[in-house]
């Protein structure tokens, strides 16, 4: 059972509870066992490293998969979901057809 080392140091044996697959030379047939807490901590460290990386030319920041969607969801929770005017007019018209009045 190998332990993740955020500093890139030597792997050590530990007793935890979450199975994590590892690949590469020297890891054939071995399993890495982590607690859920340790797994989340290591995932957070990895995400911090990814987002702290220097962006490629033409980009403002480095994002991990799903981060942009998460940011959009948070922004929409705070300020509402933008709906194009023509789409909103269609909603209002459809609501009117079934007797529901919506402010336009």
Describe this structure in words.
By secondary structure, the chain is mostly helical. The chain is built from three helices and two strands. 1% of the residues are buried. Residues 1-17 have low confidence and may be disordered.
Topology:
Elements: E1 18-20, E2 32-34, H1 36-52, H2 67-79, H3 85-97
Antiparallel strand pairs: 1-2
In short:
With 104 residues, this protein is mostly helical. It has helices at residues 36-52, 67-79, 85-97, and strands at 18-20, 32-34.
Largest sheet report: 2 strands, antiparallel
Strand sequence of the main sheet, in spatial order? 1-2
Rg measurement, Å:
24 Å
Tell me the number of strands: 2
Order of helices and strands: EEHHH
Keywords:
104 residues; mainly alpha; two-stranded antiparallel ribbon; 2 strands
């Amino acid at each position: 059972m190998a332990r993740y080392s955020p500093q890139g140091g030597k792997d050590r044996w530990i007793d935890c509870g979450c199975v994590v697959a590892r690949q590469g030379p020297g890891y054939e047939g071995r399993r890495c066992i982590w607690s859920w807490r340790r797994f989340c901590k290591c995932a957070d460290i990895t995400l911090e490293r990814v987002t702290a990386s220097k962006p490629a030319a033409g980009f403002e920041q480095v994002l991990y998969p799903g981060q942009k969607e998460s940011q959009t969801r948070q922004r929409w929770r705070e300020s509402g979901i933008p709906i194009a005017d023509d789409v909103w007019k269609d909603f209002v018209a459809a609501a009117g057809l079934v007797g529901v009045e919506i402010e336009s």
